[in-house]
Amino acid sequence: MAFTHxxxxxxxxxxxxxLMARSITQLQTGFLSPEQISASHKVMGLDTxxxxxxxxxxxxxxxxxxxxxxxxxxxxxxGGDDSVVARTPAPLDPSRDAAKVRAMYTDPAFARxxxxxxxMELCTAAARExxxxxxxxxxxxxxxxxxxxxxxxxxGPREFARVGGVQVPLIRMERNISGG
Length: 180
Hints:
Elements: E1 3-7, H1 13-27, H2 34-43, H3 49-52, E2 56-61, E3 64-72, E4 99-106, H4 115-129, E5 134-139, H5 144-149, E6 153-154, E7 159-163, E8 166-176
Parallel strand pairs: 4-5
Antiparallel strand pairs: 1-2, 2-3, 3-4, 5-8, 6-8, 7-8
């Protein structure tokens, strides 16, 4: 089957939350300790502002949710509605700011089948169409190889989100999307 895509709706929330929980729990294994994986559930997640803004994509195969991710013209770099991360909904200026790629998740059953690349293509094309010349994201250690393969480069030193006494490592990455 071929992948299809569409914009997420609020009626998709239950399926999205379930996919994100599976993705965080299973795909972070080997990159983070069990404590860091548990803490990641408090750092990551879906910011429903992306659904309101109609910038959040679902990828499906034969009606089954395979992955999701979005982009934003707002200042928030990462973090969901229920995360411990502060979010800032201020609008960005495409002439000087980078659009944000946000909340990318793949169902573990669909890992390494091109879902993440498809979401990234959708996000960068939409951000470019909105006038942005750069995109940035906050990568997990598990996501970093995909983002590097998609042309992203680290910006600055590794950062850490803290949940209680647990530090979750993150990497700020950026990509130029001007041109074709």
